[in-house]
Amino acid sequence: MKKLCMILPMALFLCFMVGCQDKEAMAELEKFKAQAEVEEENGALVRRVFDELNKQNEAVYQEFYAPEYGWYFPANNTQALTREEEAGFVKLLWAAFPDIRWDIVEMVSSGDTVMVRFTVSGTHKSEYQGLPPTGNTFKMGGTWTARIKGEKLVEVREEADVLGWMQQLGMELKPTEGITEEEMKAQAEVEEQNMELIRNCLEELDKGNAEILREVYAPDAAYYFPSGIAEAMTVEQEIEQIKMFHAGVPDLAYEIEEIMAAGDKVIVRFVARGTHTGDLGMGISPTGDKVEVSAILIFRIENGRVVEQREEADMLGFMQQLGMELKPKEEEK
After folding, report:
1. From 3.40.50.200, 3.40.50.10490, 1.10.3720.10, 3.10.450.50, which CATH number describes the 39-168 domain?
2. Which of 1, 151, 252, 283 has the most crowded Cβ, counting Cβ within 10 A?
3. Residue 302 in contact with residue 217, Cβ under 8 Å?
4. How far is 314 from 225, CA to CA, in rounded Å?
5. Which of 239, 169, 159, 171 is nearest to 205 (CA)?
């Protein structure tokens, strides 16, 4: 009797445990079944989409594609096409290849994603993006990775053998037609002439000849200093500015540190050095000190004359060499 009293609670406990495990197993099974049903429904939706595309049913995009749908083709494209843009592209295909069809080769559903491997085939009977009809038949492979939400496609990332498709339509790969050797030589000559123009200009400025700008610059040339200002100075204003600097630093000399040319542009990095013995027109008395300022200039040249110049220079360092310093601005009283 004593043994029976001990066995009975143990048996009840075991039954309770088994019952709990059965409930957990059943819950897990139900969850698995529900997921399998969703995946089966997603696969069926994709099959329906392919069927409707083969029927050339324009309503397929409204019925099975979400408004926020994005088509990434190629798959790593950072900018998706909308469902309306994809629909427009497919209409071009229907028009150029009236018998076009998509055939599913294999399909795998997992979670909210369906992977499809398919083939596309058809006959080129009308113009396609500037390519006259060839009458050629084609067949190419492709893959879809489709994401589904709320029984609608929300995203497709696609890869397809477009190269093979185009080759079947009579296209071939050729090297891009670049610049010829003669054109390269002519461009190099122009760039060298442009650099020589700027070298000669700086040599004349070394001599204090600011008027050289009238010969080197076009009458309507624009001078931006600093380079980011919205309103350019005129050639006359630049000449006056150069004359002012030469008045304050009569022995001002320009030493080119680096010069290069690319297309219609010449870039110069130089250092201007001299002695502050004259009036700079800034209310700063001559200090007799040696000064230097580094600068980078970008010239744009057309027909042998400068049409635009943008300049940056170490004007803070220059002012500090003249005994100036930065201080908080005093409030007006």
Report:
1. 3.10.450.50
2. 252
3. no
4. 12
5. 239
- Structure token digits, residue 296: 């980078």
Q: Over the stretch 43-78, which tens digit does the pLDDT of each residue have? A: 999 999 999 999 999 999 999 999 999 999 988 888
Residues 6 or more apart from 316 whose CB is under 8 A from it? 326
What burial letters (b/e) apply to 196-224, b meaning 16+ CB within 10 Å?
A: ebbeebbebbeeeebebbeebbeeebbbb
| Spatial distance between the Cα atoms of 195 and 201, rounded to a whole number of angstroms | 10
- Topology of the domain covering 181-321: Nuclear Transport Factor 2; Chain: A, (3.10.450)
Per 3-state DSSP, the chain is made up of helix, strand and coil in percentages (nearest 5) of 40, 30, 30
Residue 178, burial from CB neighbour count under 10 angstroms (0-12, 13-18, 19+): exposed
**Per-domain residue ranges for the chain?**
39-168, 181-321
Residue with tokens 């009283």: 333
C-alpha to C-alpha distance for 249 and 292, rounded to whole angstroms: 10
Q: Strand order in 65-72's β-sheet?
A: 65-72, 152-160, 137-149, 113-123, 101-110
Length of the chain: 333
In angstroms, how far is CA 39 from the centroid of its own chain? 37
Is the model's pTM score more than 0.85?
A: no
Peptide bond into 286 cis (omega under 30): no
Q: Which residue(s) pair with 299 in the sheet?
A: 266, 309
